[in-house]
Amino acid sequence: MRTYLSLAYKEVKKQKLTTFLIIVAIMMSTAMTTVIGKSIGVMKNLMVEQAHSLNGDRHVTFHELDEQQIEHLKSKEGLSQIGVIKTLGTMNIKDSGISMVVRENDKASIKNYPNVSRVKLGRIPKAAREIALDENTLKLMGISPDIGDKILLDLSVSSLKGSEPPFNFSSEYTLSGILESDYLGYANGIVTAIAGPGTVNDLLPDKYNFASVDFKVSDFRDFQNKINSMASDLNLKEHQIQYNWIYLNTLGIDYKGKDLEDNGAAGIADIAVFMGILVLLAAGLVVYNILKISVVKKIKEYGILRAIGAEPNQLYKIIIVQIFLLCAIAIPMGVVVGVLSANTITAAATSMINPEVFLANSSEQLSELIHENAKGYSTPLLLGTGVSLVFSFLAALPSAIYAAKVSPKIAMAGVSQTIKRKNSKSKEIINIARHLAWLNLKRNRGRTIITILSLFMSITVFVALKSFSSNLDISNAVKDFKMGDFSISNETVGIKKEALKELYQYNNVERVSFVKYSMYTQKQIEQGELTTDISFGNPSETFKIIGIDQQYLKELYPDITARQLADFKSGKLCIIKNPMAISSELKSTSLKQGDRLKINDRELTVQAITGKAVSIQGTGWVNGIDVIVYDNVYDELTGKNSLNQINTYIKDYSKLEEVQSIVERISKDNPGSRWLSYSETDRQMQESFAQTRVLAWGFILFVTLIGVLNIINTTYTNIHTRINEIGMQRAIGMDNKSLYKVFLWEGAYYGILAAISGSIAGYIISIFMSSAATGQIEFSNLPIIPILSGSVLSVAVCLIATVIPLGKIKSMSIVESIDIIS
Fold first, then answer.
1. Segment (H or E) for 134
2. Membrane-crossing residues (predicted)?
3. 476: part of which helix (H) or strand (E)?
4. Is 193 in contact with 131 (CB distance < 8 Å)?
5. DSSP letters of 264-292?
6. For the chain, percent helix, then strand, then coil, each to nearest 5?
7. Are 234 and 73 in contact (CB under 8 A)?
8. pTM here?
9. Domain residue extents for the chain
10. What is the per-residue pLDDT across 225-257, written as a single tens digit (0 to 9) for each?
């Protein structure tokens, strides 16, 4: 032979089927790594844009700064998008549970909050005592305005922490603009109005004329120390520093208090890389399987080469050169397919949804924004190409070593391995086709394991990705602030229990939960309105007793047992929400699981500590100790039995108005009550995630396609390399029907075994991926639908991949089948 290259090239040309199957496997794995490289950036930026829309394009906000502090902050290097906001005051919108905050924004801060400053009619205020309100807030206030109308507002302003009483005032404003409604504010009960520059100076006394300053940090290295240093320079207290936790968590930045408010998005890059490794392993197993079968079939040829003087390392080089030639063809094709696929998925994602959700004016602008932020992803593409090349060589390595170590004598004799048979007990064979299929699997355990592993990897990736896709939704962090589809609230006299029966009478109501709520100050406790043995760490902390129903209790404490539920109902157990530490100078009260406390002569044991705040819609959570007990226990502790909030969950959203009329009537029948619909809030949150979901599904479907191709690839190779065996079976009398049954059973075994193991592995991996994103291991519900989908798909594809080559082989003559040389 003249060169290894020429011999390897002849081998590649001669084995057309093997060459084609290996090229497909390498091409698809390269395409996958390319899609991952591009999708990491695109998906991450979609999540970042979603975080912007939910909570502003800012990293940190410093509150209650004077003019000198503001100028000092503006002079700092490494900060950008510095926006100054002055709060004019707040007002509660009657019978709505919504508070409106009126803020005077400069141009920079308006850009930081485009989701609450989109103008529907008119313009943003430009002069003092001009104002712009969103359309739905005007409706809640009972105002049908025109631009230029005068609006009278009663506002109240106070400092974040201080002894000064609130400053209440009334003033008239000129309506300069009507804003697009921001229903996301309903989730926490706060909407925003914009006042013109100079309004705060005109209407507020100097001691209330403070500003909040939003900013972004250019360099994330040592982020927390930079914030601490700036806060120290400005003499700020902890309560004056607010982190945009939704945005920072999405960026994966470490900051103070992150463990308390992690939204689970920080691990997206690591998870995508992990998924890519699984896909590469699946493709690598296919390459290994095909090459190993190919080498075993040509064992005589390698024996002859050894006999005429070829050294082991020369055979080794032939295999390596073959895989290099195949990679030279497959990898460029895979890169092209991957880039086109990633662009197609992104185009679909950015064209289907309203771009305003992501702060863009058009789909084209959104697409440009995403790809502008995703620049520099040529490195992952090159890395993906290199990784595919390395994986392909690693997959070929065992076959190359096997070929290099072959003994010329054994190879030329045609005996490549020693066959050992175990003595087994005779037993009745019920189904001969199934029995032969099982024997075929056991006969070559190595080939069987590799085939199952190839399918296993594909199913694992599908189940894991499908189960984890919901974690990409940044709006999950906001959804925790609301409960149900409708809420009826009354924090004064409460709502009669008959309202529950009335709601349950309607078929479209899926379930109803409720909250009973009583709050006591430490002064009220000292005056004897309530007795408790708790020692408060901070004089500003309140003490709340909250009664909930069984369903809500299970949501707060999912691991509750039947015995524990009985103890909650009998008044032995409670759940505690500890207060937040708002000052480094004063300790906060901190109860632990197992602690005992006494309320009005009743002793309770703390069964669990929750991080979820339970509050009445529109009132916000007041810092203090929350003692959460069962419904009837609340009645006994407080002497009250009325409901303070009812949350209604509906079945059919097409019949929303029917339930709404019932909720509205109940609210009117209970004086002092208000109701709120979250349907528009849900719509905005769904839209904010829709594009990310489309992109994630495109990613999942692409992975599924690769998995399907790998299944076909492996199964086809497995059957095609056994043409001689099939010909022999036909020669001794096996008809085509029996032959089909044997191989269909074999394909079914492959699919079923891979489906079971892959589904379990996929579920376990989805748990670990969620823990990587959230920082804690939670055993979520078993993803039944993804598991069934992946299992059915794998078995179906195995059967189809079995039928196609068998149909071709059965048309060959028996003599041709036995004598064929692949």
1. strand 130-134
2. 20-37, 271-291, 315-342, 381-404, 448-465, 694-712, 747-772, 784-804
3. helix 476-479
4. yes
5. S-TTHHHHHHHHHHHHHHHHHHHHHHHHH
6. 55, 15, 30
7. yes
8. 0.55
9. 4-49+267-415+431-476+685-819, 57-220, 483-677
10. 899 999 999 988 887 888 887 788 777 787 875
